[in-house]
Amino acid sequence: KGELMRGKRGLVMGVANDKSIAWGIAQQLAAQGAEIAFTYQGEALEKRIRPLAESVGSQIVLECDASNDAHLDAVFDRLKTSWGKLDFLVHSIAFAEKSELKGSFVENTTRENFLRAMDISAFSFVAAGKRAAKLMDRGGSMVTLTYLGAERVLPSYNTMGVAKAALEACTRYMARDLGPEGKRVNAISAGAMRTLAIAGIQGGRGLISTGREWSVMKEDTSMEGIAGCALWLLSDLGRSTTGEVVHVDAGFHIVGVPDTGGAE
Ligand code: NAD
């Protein structure tokens, strides 16, 4: 147990189960003394989230569809009433229709699905961040989760890659606007992890195995590594870092062509 988040209160959005990246992050923040509120999507998830939240001493567990402004307003109103202020926000939310996450991007992407993916996976960070910032003093910090598919072409990632590119750009513009107020906004580009979200991507398991085999560390990305990065960015240790996309992927993103040890 540490003290890095002692006295800090924050909202974690995007826990679906105990494999969720948001949950890995929440556990490390709580172990460092943070007080956490959680949101979940849809009633069905509540019975899974509540015990997790209670296990880290959380009193506030709220439903929130991130594409619904009334839900977002209700969540931040509640935080204002209960806490008065907020120190951090974790946005770990993404969605694209399964039919988009395979094959040809050009052929499979529809206008409706494209806009929905953009709304939930990119704009929702702006929408939540705007409300969170109003409750933050100087020192406030926000983090979202992104993936290499924003920067490079990866199989099946398609619409989600485009949405992640938008999310990363949103991170920089949010950092620009909130910087003068002493509030920081960053993104963690995580290596492929075995969660519900990756199960929706055709060949998602291949992204995990290739991520391991091509990585310079020759290992899977660890939840501890992702959560450790979030802890750095959300605590005062990260006080001069903003507008950044930090890769936590065992060095997968720096490799152009995998090393075959000289074999032709
Ligand atoms: P996950 O399925 O556990 O989390 C995704 C969350 O998004 C779920 O909690 C889901 O309820 C939520 N969500 C979807 N639509 C929503 C909506 N309309 N309103 C509110 N919440 C909604 O999977 P995860 O891998 O933990 O994903 C978390 C984040 O990490 C996502 O942004 C994902 O793109 C990103 N990420 C994942 C990986 C990976 O390999 N798993 C790698 C890099 C980045």
Give an overview of the whole structure.
This protein is an alpha/beta fold. It has one domain: NAD(P)-binding Rossmann-like Domain (Rossmann fold), CATH 3.40.50. 42% of the residues lie in helices and 14% in strands. The chain has helices at 21-31, 46-55, 69-83, 105-108, 111-134, 158-178, 196-199, 204-214, 223-234, and strands at residues 9-13, 35-40, 60-63, 88-91, 141-146, 184-190, 245-248. Strands 3-2-1-4-5-6-7 form a 7-stranded parallel sheet, with helices on both faces. Strand 2 (35-40), helix 2 (46-55) and strand 3 form a beta-alpha-beta unit. The chain starts with 8 loop residues before the first strand and ends in a 16-residue tail after the last strand. The mean pLDDT is 97. The site of nicotinamide-adenine-dinucleotide has 26 residues, from helix 1, strand 5 and helix 7. InterPro entries: Enoyl-ACP_Rdtase_NADH (IPR014358), NAD(P)-bd_dom_sf (IPR036291), SDR_fam (IPR002347). It catalyses: a 2,3-saturated acyl-[ACP] + NAD(+) = a (2E)-enoyl-[ACP] + NADH + H(+). It comes from Terricaulis silvestris. Pathway: Lipid metabolism; fatty acid biosynthesis. It is an enzyme of class 1 (oxidoreductase).
